């Protein structure tokens, strides 16, 4: 079994430093966030000053901040990326999340390196290679089963294994989708995906017959591993990652709080495991993942291939069931709420399905209760009734934004405190306060004073305890509080006691800061580890000469340039995915196996996806059970200004 640490890390996303701070408050052991540039989310960058502010807050709780520097880079961008790495290191960041191996050829600071999901880590051999070249944390592909995850963990001797447990699912193997670049020139590997996977498509067979009409057949439901955490721990996962660097504050609070509670249950059951940071989180609300944006839940392939992993009807958030329409008027409609549903609010967002089964959304302008039970309501929408397609009596309603819930999460919704043992004791020249926190850091401060015994010892003891325990505004809360006297309790003016407590806390915080240690940078093995293959195609995303040299140094003989170099002009795989459209439409030959009258008549022949003028071909590789979405780069993309074309060979050599 892997020698990975026995700490469990809850890793939360942050679009901004403020969201990152709330992720820490709601229980995250680590946060990943974009710096000013080169993060794989185009509009989720943050200034160095904000990174520094987030780092200071996180480190108070021994939590960590990881910076996403995980796009593929052109040759002319490498120096800027190197400078950025040093800037975030000097700001105190704990690790870089990296896709481009060219960075490993540069003069990087001694900061820990984590392999991005964009590295497409599907095999134990790939994971082991990344460990051996200097990565301390690797993220297993979302498509892996528990057995495959366990095999990957067992292949690692020092690196920690990370796995996505919640959030949006990219249908492609990470780093293996080029549709966006082929159709628009916007590269997913450079943080600018156009999300072609969320579009509706006609699915057409080889004879031109429509197999599915206007279905979002490449759109997945959202990942939810809530029920699998113990199994993932057993398989060797140590970092549990939430997707969502585009998500809002409420989403991050809710989902982080949800998994904090679940992981704390696991830690309570298993004393051999420990939390990845300090302190205890106390939530002021009950987390509910269904209330945050989601497309329905799936645990994807963790427990093997499942029938229902797609959000084929809509890629939008339908929300929770609300009730049904009971009457439609000229400028309003009435609805009856389901049993147990919370009241409507002005500003709520509702959804329903029209007669074509398309999701329609509306915003509540004014909601008025029509009965004392708060189950019958009149809704005046923001939109004219005529604009609400197919709104009719008995149509089922859902609510995808609940203003009452939003208001709960807009307020302070969690606090995080570090357990502290406090001992007030009598010493020859007065009194002393001794502090010891849950991490073993200590402080000791003496207060000289003229001793005066309290006239009412019991009352004095109670007052001293109450005053000492007042730690509001700090990161601490009293766990144990002891008072030791050589005789009856001393009288101590509260002003002096408060000053003593403040001084002791300041010294404790200084001791915690002095004990802070950066995460160690892993040392690559020598001689250099050999890459598992000797030839790399465009699928390896090598976009600069430093990355090419990295792979050549590790035994690869031929390295093709990334798809973004625009040398692949014909039909190629623009996406590789474990999701199978034939399987989801019950057209898989393996499904037909053994079915009388069907076996042998269903073949994995190509299908075509059509969206307007866009056409893609689906080809099925049944041995590894994978689907390839095939197409070619558009002429309009080739005509765009190409900043820095890269070509490694005048003519491709033989491997």
UniProtKB/TrEMBL annotation:
Residues 399-512 form the Peptidase U32 collagenase domain. PROSITE patterns: PEPTIDASE_U32. SUPFAM superfamilies: Ribulose-phoshate binding barrel (SSF51366). It comes from the Bacteria. This is U32 family peptidase. It comes from Roseateles rivi.
């Amino acid at each position: 079994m892997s020698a990975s640490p026995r700490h469990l890390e809850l890793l939360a996303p942050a679009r901004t430093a403020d969201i990152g701070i709330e992720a820490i408050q709601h229980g995250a052991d680590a946060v990943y966030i974009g710096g000013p540039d080169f993060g794989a989310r185009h509009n989720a960058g943050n200034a160095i000053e904000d990174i520094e502010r987030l780092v200071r807050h996180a480190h108070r709780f021994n939590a960590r901040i990881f910076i996403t520097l995980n796009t593929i880079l052109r040759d002319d961008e490498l120096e800027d990326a190197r400078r950025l790495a040093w800037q975030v290191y000097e700001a105190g960041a704990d690790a870089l999340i990296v896709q481009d191996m060219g960075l490993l050829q540069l003069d990087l600071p001694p900061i820990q390196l984590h392999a991005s999901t964009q590295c497409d880590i599907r095999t134990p051999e790939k994971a082991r290679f990344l460990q051996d070249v200097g990565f301390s944390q690797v993220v297993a592909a979302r498509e892996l089963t528990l057995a495959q995850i366990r095999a990957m963990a067992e292949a690692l001797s020092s690196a920690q294994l990370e796995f996505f447990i919640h959030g949006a699912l990219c249908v492609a193997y990470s780093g293996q989708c080029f549709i966006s670049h082929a159709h628009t020139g916007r590269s997913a590997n450079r943080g600018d995906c156009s999300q072609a996977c969320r579009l509706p498509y006609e699915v057409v067979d080889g004879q031109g017959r429509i197999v599915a009409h206007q279905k979002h057949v490449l759109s997945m439901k959202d990942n939810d591993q809530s029920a699998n955490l113990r199994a993932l721990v057993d398989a060797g996962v140590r970092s549990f990652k939430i997707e969502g660097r585009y998500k809002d504050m409420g989403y991050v609070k809710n989902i982080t709080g949800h998994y904090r509670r679940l992981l704390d249950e696991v830690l309570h059951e298993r004393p051999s495991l420990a939390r990845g940071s300090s302190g205890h989180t106390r939530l002021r609300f009950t987390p509910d993942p269904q209330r945050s944006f989601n497309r329905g839940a799936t645990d994807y392939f963790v427990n093997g291939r499942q029938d229902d992993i797609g959000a084929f009807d809509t890629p939008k958030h339908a929300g929770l069931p609300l009730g049904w329409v009971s009457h439609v008027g000229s400028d309003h409609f009435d609805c009856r709420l389901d049993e147990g549903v919370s009241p409507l609010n002005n500003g709520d967002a509702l959804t329903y399905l029209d007669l074509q089964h398309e999701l329609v959304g509306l915003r509540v302008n004014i909601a008025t209760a029509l009965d004392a039970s708060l189950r019958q309501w009149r809704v005046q929408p923001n939109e004219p009734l005529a604009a609400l397609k197919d709104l009719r009596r008995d149509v089922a309603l859902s609510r995808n934004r609940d203003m009452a819930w939003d208001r709960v999460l807009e307020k302070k919704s969690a606090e995080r405190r570090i357990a502290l043992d406090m001992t007030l004791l009598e010493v020859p020249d007065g009194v002393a306060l001794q502090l010891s926190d849950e991490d073993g850091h200590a402080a000791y401060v003496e207060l000289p004073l003229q001793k005066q015994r309290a006239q009412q010892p019991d009352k004095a003891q109670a007052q001293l305890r109450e005053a000492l325990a007042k730690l509001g505004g700090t990161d601490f809360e009293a766990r144990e509080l002891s008072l030791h006297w050589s005789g009856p309790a001393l009288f101590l003016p509260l002003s002096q006691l408060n000053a003593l407590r403040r001084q002791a806390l300041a010294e404790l915080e200084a001791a915690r800061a002095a004990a802070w240690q950066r995460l160690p940078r892993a040392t690559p093995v020598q001689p250099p580890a050999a890459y598992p293959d000797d030839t790399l195609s465009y699928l390896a995303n090598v976009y600069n000469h430093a990355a090419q040299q990295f792979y050549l140094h590790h035994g690869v003989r031929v390295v093709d340039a990334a798809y973004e170099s625009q040398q692949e002009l014909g039909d190629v795989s623009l996406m590789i995915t474990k999701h199978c459209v034939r399987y989801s439409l019950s057209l898989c030959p393996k499904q037909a196996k053994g079915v009388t009258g069907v076996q042998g008549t269903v073949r994995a022949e190509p299908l075509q996806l059509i969206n307007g003028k866009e056409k893609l071909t689906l080809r099925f590789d049944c041995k590894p059970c994978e689907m390839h979405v095939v197409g070619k780069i558009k002429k309009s993309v080739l005509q765009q200004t190409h900043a820095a074309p890269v070509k490694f060979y005048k003519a491709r050599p033989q491997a």
